[in-house]
Amino acid sequence: MISVPSADTAGALVPHTLKKPLPCAKSGPLAGLTFMVKDLFAIRGRKVSNGNPDFYAHATPAQETAPVIERLLATGASCTGITICDEFFYSVLGTNAHYGTPVNTRAPKHVTGGSSCGSAAAVAASMCDFALGSDTGGSIRVPASFSGLYGLRPTFGRIDIAGATPMAPSYDTIGFLARDAELFRKIGHVLLEGACVDADIKRLILAEDIFSRAEVSKDAALWEVFSRIGRALPQPERKIVAGDDIDDWRDAFRVIQGFEIQSTLLPFVQSHNVDLEPGIRERFEMAAAITYQEVEAARALRAEIAERLLGIARPGTVIVLPTTPTPPPERDIPDGASTAEFRTLTLQSTCLAGHAGLPQISIPAAEAAGCPVGLSFIGWQGGDEALLDLAVKLGPLLATSI
C-alpha cells in the first residue's frame, strides 16, 4: 500500500498536509506512482493557504477537488502530500517566511526557486515520483532548473486550471515536475487536453540575446552541452529574439500581472490586513498602484510581443535559451531589495513564453558552480508533445553532464 512519507526530508510540506493518501484508482497508466501538489489546489473537504497562514485561517473547505488532481487519481497515481509555495506565489525565489524554505537537495546551500518550491524540493528529494505546481511567470521552470528536474509550462489552456487559486489569469498555467524524462512524457500525455499540433522539430532558433545575458559559468556549461548534443538537434540558427526591448517585455509582464492581481489576491490582502514578508508586501503595494492606462499600454505591447514570438515559433520550430540566466541564490539571502536584480534577470528569460501562451520545457542539462543548470525549449502553440518527445530524446545524451 502506498503511504505518506514518514519524514519530510526536504522541508517541502505545509503543516496542513495530507494525513493519508487521497483515494485513487487501483489500475491505470500511472498506477503505483505518487505525486504531491502545490498549496493552491482545491481538495474536497480541505483548505488551501496559498503560502499564507492568515489566508488558511479564513478559508473554507473546498467543495470539489481540482480536475487536474482528479485526472491523476483516475489513472492510478496516489496524491500523498501538499507542498509549500512562495507566499501568494509572488516570487521566483523559493522561500516562505511562515512555513520555511524547502531544501534544494541538489544544491543544499541554495534555494530551489519558486514559487512551486516545495513541489520541486519533494521531487528532487525522491519524496514522490512527480509533483504539480503552477507557472505564471516561471514558477515551474525556475525550480526545475535550480533543482535538476524536468518541468513543463504548457501551452496556455492545455491543462485544466479549474480548482487552482488564480493569480494573473491571462498568464496562469498548471505545470508539473519529474526526475525522469520517460515518466515526464507519460504524465504529459495524461494531463494535456485540447489541440495537439504535431510536427517534427526541423528548425532550432538559438536566442543569442538571452544567452548573452547568462552568468559566465552557466553560459560556458550550456555551450559545452551543445557540443555534445548537436547531432540530435537541427543546426541552430542564431537570432536576436528581444534585443534591447527585453526590459520593456519584462516590465509589460510585471504591469499586467500586477493589474490582474488587483482582482484576484489583492482584495483579500487588503481587507484582512495580512501579515506579509517584506518583499511580498512591496510587490502587492506595487500591484495596487498600477493604473488602467499603464496596463492598457502593457497589453498593447504584449500583443506585439506575442505576434513576434508566434511568427518565430511556428510548427516545427523551437527556440532554445537558458531557463534562468543565473545560478540559484543562496538560502540565507532574504527576499527583498537584495534579490531584486535576481527577479529582474529571471523574468527577462521567463516572460517570453507567457506573453505568447507558448509551451516551454526546462531540461536538466549541466552543472555550473556546483548547481544544476536547466536548458529550455519554447515550442509552438499545441507543440507540448513534441517538447516531451525532445526531453526523452535528449535525456540520455545529457545524463553525463549532471
Descriptive keywords:
402 residues, single chain, ten-stranded mixed beta sheet, alpha/beta, Amidase signature (AS) enzymes
Give a brief description.
The chain is α/β, with parallel strands linked by helices and 402 residues long. It has helices spanning 53-58, 67-74, 117-124, 141-147, 181-191, 208-212, 216-229, 246-264, 266-271, 278-289, 292-312, 340-356, 384-398; strands at residues 34-38, 78-83, 130-135, 150-153, 173-178, 203-207, 236-239, 317-322, 360-368, 371-378.
Tell me what the structure shows.
The structure is a single chain. With 402 residues, the protein is of the alpha/beta class. 37% of the residues lie in helices and 15% in strands. It contains 13 helices and ten strands. It has a ten-stranded mixed sheet with strand order 2-1-3-5-4-9-10-8-6-7, sandwiched between helices. The mean pLDDT is 95. The longest helix is centred in the last third of the chain and has 21 residues. The two termini are 33 Å apart. Helix 8 crosses helix 10. The protein has one domain: Amidase signature (AS) domain (Amidase signature (AS) enzymes, Alpha-Beta Complex), CATH 3.90.1300.10.
